[in-house]
Amino acid sequence: MLTKAYIPYKGYYSTPFSRWQGSFANEHAIIFAANTAKRWLAQKKWDPAMFDYLFLGITIGQPQWFYGSPWAAALIGAPGIPGVLLSQACTTSTTCIFQAAVGIETGFYKNAYCLMTDKCSNGPHTVWPNPNGPGGEVLSENWMMDNFGRDPWAKGAMIQTAENVAKEAGITREECDAVALRRYEQYMDSLANDKAFKKRYMFPAEVSVSKKKTIIVEDDEGITPCTKEGLAALKTVLPDGTHTFGAQTHPADGNCAVVVTTREKAKELSGDPKIEVRIVSYGFARAKKGFMAMAVVPAVKMALDNAGITIKDVKAIKTHNPFAANDIYLSKQMNIDVNGFNNYGSSLIYGHPQAPTAGRCIIEGIEEVAMLGGGYLLWGGCAAGDTGAGLVLKIG
């Protein structure tokens, strides 16, 4: 259990997420995130030099990302600090936040900045030397689609892992459609009252269309309207599968940031000094080969055990749910209502830019618990390689 690491209330933001080949498609993910962070810090009148370390979470290569974290630090206005680049697929944000928290807990850092960004659009195509191949032909890799399409260890595509879990757990097509519709309805709740919930944390992105034109993106792009009839009319992605394209997430672009610091500094920076956000515990797990969605359960159980609480003590739950089966399996294993968590949105609906996905979910969870008067937040999600992570925070 952690006792010294805090997130200042309102010490975070997420941009909207844009479906791939949308408004963010031509941005350099690191430069885009750093410029957004610089604007956000300026709006809050915070000096970037107050940070002593920067965690850069990113999973899809960008030109010169070899310099990743120190480059991003310089771009946000903190050229005197070092940092590290972290890549852990879909749980990258969680790892950045937890590693920052461990640094605070042990006294290595006093005020860390976690910046998570990815761009699925226009991803890199890598060429690898193959001198022993026929005629010296090179090996090539489409960075995103080739990895989505095949795990080198389990040998299957990402969606195959979800179908493996669905088959073993007895999850039906009808259940997947019902959860997809419920998650869409929950996302629509975030748009009520002139987007009141989303305005609690979302920061608009600034995109340069040309040398003379800049646009401001304030809303998620690529949200697909869902109805029961519309979902039922879709074909499953795999023959005899349970998931259609309506019951799985979609690649996206975006970034987010979270400040992790001491209790005293968090109070100083807080948007409401009466609200404290403490990072309590972390959990991790790896499921059997080809059953990625299963990894979430042992990961969140570890996080809960490390926090000294049970699922019944949690005020709100947020998950990264690339497939509807993820949430259904979690609900069955933890004996919770599948319709009762992921309020106000989830990656199933607004998309999945890998590194910032979990960060946005956690940020939303903080705001939901704050609205409910405080309590514990549980986040859980899977990641490539049949792995999972969990995080417990206490708000209030």
Can you characterise this structure?
The protein has 396 residues and is an alpha+beta fold. It folds into two domains: 12-121 and 206-219 and 250-269, Thiolase/Chalcone synthase (Peroxisomal Thiolase, Chain A, domain 1); 158-194 and 276-395, Peroxisomal Thiolase, Chain A, domain 1 (3-Layer(aba) Sandwich), CATH 3.40.47.10. The chain is built from 13 helices and 14 strands. It has helices spanning 29-43, 68-76, 92-106, 145-149, 158-169, 173-189, 192-195, 228-233, 263-269, 296-307, 324-334, 347-350, 357-371; strands at 12-14, 18-19, 53-57, 83-86, 111-119, 125-128, 139-142, 205-208, 214-217, 252-261, 277-286, 314-320, 375-383, 387-395. Strands 1, 2, 3, 4, 5 and 10 form a six-stranded mixed β-sheet that branches. β13 and β14 (387-395) form a beta hairpin. α1 packs parallel to α2, α3 packs across α13 (357-371) and α5 (158-169) packs parallel to α11. The chain is globular and about 55 Å long. The two termini are 17 Å apart. The mean pLDDT is 97.
Core attributes:
2 domains, 13 helices, Peroxisomal Thiolase, Chain A, domain 1, 396 residues, 14 strands, globular, single chain, alpha+beta
